[in-house]
Specification:
The chain has about 180 residues and is α+β, with helices and mostly antiparallel strands. The protein is built from six helices and six strands, in the order ααβααβββββαα. Strands 1, 2, 3, 4, 5 and 6 form a six-stranded antiparallel sheet that branches. The protein starts with a helix and ends with a helix.
Length: about 180
């Protein structure tokens, strides 16, 4: 089951967090609930990805991307995910998810989601690659164009670092392998 109550809370409080700007961060706070855990009584692996979704959606709302996508008939498409688990999030424990757009390369944008304990210790990091798909033109929109449409200019904040380049290359290779069957 998707995290609908958490989604509703995030959507209802979007205005209170203010607009998202390039280089900004979405920080959402949670508590690990019984519906979030696995047999080890800690945050389920799949729940990390669902909560990372909420961080991305918060960025979409607060940056104006959601409204732009609705006007242009564009859709966000997640392409790949890489997760590193460092510390567990136990039942009833409070934690936050800090989500950010790190950089982009052509039509691919790299997002980062840090799951953090109350003391700031990182529990997990999730890297994502995604794009914005133009349904009418049947193509992915170059990120420079998306950012320019949002009124922020089209400059890449920084080139992808070594780890991000490796992530993109790994994702591209796995995608090619998947298409072959």
């Amino acid at each position: 089951m998707y995290v609908w109550l958490r989604f509703a809370r995030m959507a209802a409080t979007t205005g209170a967090r203010g607009p998202d700007r390039p280089g900004g961060e979405s920080v959402l706070s949670f508590r690990c609930l019984p519906t979030d855990i696995d047999f080890n009584l800690h945050l389920n692996n799949a729940r990390y990805l669902m909560l990372a979704d909420l961080g991305r959606i918060d960025i979409f709302f607060r940056s104006g991307l959601f409204a732009l996508m609705r006007r242009r008939n564009w859709a966000p498409m997640l392409g790949g995910v890489q997760t590193a688990f460092v510390r567990e999030v136990r039942l009833w424990q409070r934690f936050s998810v800090a989500s950010s757009i790190e950089t982009w390369d052509g039509t691919q944008v790299i997002g980062r989601h840090r799951f953090m304990h109350e003391d700031g210790a990182v529990a997990a990091t999730v890297l994502t690659t995604a794009g914005v798909y133009d349904r009418k033109a049947k193509r992915f929109v170059p990120m420079d164009e998306v950012v320019a449409e949002l009124g922020h200019g089209g400059r890449v904040p920084r080139p992808p670092n070594h780890a991000e380049q490796a992530f993109l290359a790994s994702h591209s290779g796995l995608r090619a392998l998947s298409k072959r069957g």
